Amino acid sequence: MMKYFYNRLEFQRSRLVGSLAFVVCICLAGLLIGCDGNLFESISDDDSYEARLEEGLMALDDEDYDKAVELFLDLREDYSSKEEVCVYLSNAYAGLTGIDTFSLLETIDEMEGTDDEGSIDMIGLLLGDAQGIIQLSEVSGKMDLLALAKDAIDTCIDSLDTDERVQTGLLGLGDAALIIANTVMTDLSLTSLELTEDGLDALYTSLSADFDSTDISDTALQQLNDSLDDIADAVEALEDLLGEDESDLSESFEEFLADVDPDSDGIDRDDLENYIQNL
């Protein structure tokens, strides 16, 4: 459906084809040794880009995100006009936080029909461990990585297509969840929490505490609203793509927006307090 989110199967198929092509190229290289050097030079740049791109995609496919970041940063430096490099670099940064766009869609499918369909549950199980537990010490680093992931797209692509708008929405959802996690842990003086609706609700129930909205800073509140704007834009992009039909992803986006910003006029401290208190 979307070229960046659904390319894993296509990439796996291309690896076999690529391997065969590599053998053929080796054979051809022997034939070209005695030919005009300019002929070889005319294809060397393209081969270099394609080979390096494939190496980066292999790292993404193997979930070796540190290597993928390094490879795509180098590619972006040499091929700054290649928008696909920026998109894959964004995916690599997001992968370091636990958000792999491919596995995210799989997680949505797995949750369908269960009691854990809340979108913060979905993203919490990716940002945290298998139970959605996230450590306060991890939050800042993951937020920085998501900022780099978004920046990789925003500074490279002037006009985002549908795929890129949806990818930015996924990053916004992760960022919003981390802001909420950080705010709750600050409010309750915690070092970790379960980043799910049930987990957040249980905290305030077990501690007989009320959420204090003053614990969220103006900067964090603005960042949260920026993330919600990215999620809302992703909803519009999916509507343009799907028409009247809806996907699990668009439903998750819409559910989260309705929960945290029911009036669709931007989230303020009262909205955030109501969200936490009514989980």
Notable features of this structure?
279 residues, mainly alpha, two-stranded antiparallel ribbon, 12 helices, globular
* Total strands: 2
Q: Biggest β-sheet: count, sense, barrel?
A: 2 strands, antiparallel
Category by helix and strand content: mainly alpha
Distance between the termini: 33 Å
Order of helices and strands: HHHHHHEHHEHHHH
The portion of residues forming beta strands comes to under 5%
Question: Strand order across the biggest sheet?
Answer: 1-2
Q: Compute the CA-based radius of gyration.
A: 22 Å
- What's the helical proportion of residues? over 70%
Residue-averaged pLDDT = 81
Number of domains: 1
Per DSSP, the total helix count is: 12
**Low-confidence spans:** 16-44
Q: What is the 3D shape?
A: globular
Structural notes for this entry:
- Strands 1-2 form a two-stranded antiparallel sheet.
- The chain has one domain.
- The chain has twelve helices and two strands, in the order H-H-H-H-H-H-E-H-H-E-H-H-H-H.
- The chain has helices at 8-32, 37-61, 65-78, 83-97, 101-111, 119-127, 136-154, 162-188, 197-206, 218-242, 248-260, 269-277; strands at residues 133-135, 192-194.
- It is globular, with a radius of gyration of 22 Å.
- The protein has 279 residues and is mostly helical.
